[in-house]
Amino acid sequence: MNDSNSQGLTAPCLLEAVNLHKSYKTSKQVLNVLSGTHLKLKAGEMLGIIGASGVGKSTLLHVLGGLDRPESGKVLFQGEDICVKGNGYLENFRNQRVGFVFQFFNLLSDFTALENAMFPALIGRVEEKEARELAEQLLVQMGLKDRLQHKPGELSGGESQRVALARGLINKPGLLLADEPTGNLDNKASDSLIELIQSLNSELGQTVVVVTHSQRIASKMDRVMELSGGLINPVEKSLII
Ligand SMILES: Nc1ncnc2c1ncn2[C@@H]1O[C@H](COP(=O)(O)OP(=O)(O)OP(=O)(O)O)[C@@H](O)[C@H]1O
Ligand SMILES: [Mg+2]
What we know:
The structure is a single chain. By secondary structure, this protein is an alpha/beta fold. Helix content is 32%, strand content 27%. The chain has seven helices and ten strands. The chain has a six-stranded mixed beta sheet, sandwiched between helices. Strands 2-1-4-5 form a four-stranded antiparallel beta sheet, covered by helices on one side. The longest helix has 18 residues, at 187-204. It is globular and about 45 Å long. It starts with 12 loop residues before the first strand and ends in a 6-residue tail after the last strand. The model is unreliable at 1-6 (pLDDT under 50). It binds adenosine-5'-triphosphate and magnesium ion (MG). Adenosine-5'-triphosphate binds next to β2 and α1.
């Protein structure tokens, strides 16, 4: 599909969010988080999403990745609306098409770094030996050669984040959604993690969305958008460098 629109895209669209609405209802209030959010993701691009704390960046990422459903609106993945699909389809979609790096890692505390990174491959019916080799290769690439047998409670925040990234990448998803993947890393470690994501992006043509508070990290993306007041708008990169 050739596409040209207000965001200046001219390449095929991998994912499109159309008029998303999402609110959280508590006993005291209704909090509107997404209020007609539109977003187009071009295949192979790296998009940075910035925005103040609590504005809804994680919520948006969860909706884009089929982890949460909007109240209304569509999430078109290669033209198909994932929001109308059943849970079984979404489980498979999340396992095979999307790699998710959670803001708070969501590692399983009783399992080692290696086992945590292997899980999506095992769920996707990859042979155990191959899953182990793939996970080990990714973890070594991330500088965790000596931490393979550590459980999450025996890892630092930055190490946990890298295990979460390895888990997100193991099935070589076409789309990587990373929520603050450098939030616990120093500048040097952040740069090497982003370089790793960039090299996967250029080698595998993976489409990447990175939510970040860091202007430095955002400036390394192809394109940056800011979520504010339930809407997402382009940010001129020269303004954030
Ligand atoms: N399950 C929930 N129930 C009620 N309110 C929620 C729920 N989850 C999130 N919220 C609220 O929705 C808003 C958006 O949350 P979200 O986690 O998406 O923000 P964020 O932009 O990712 O923030 P941060 O930058 O701090 O990670 C926040 O104000 C939060 O308090
Ligand atoms: Mg968040």
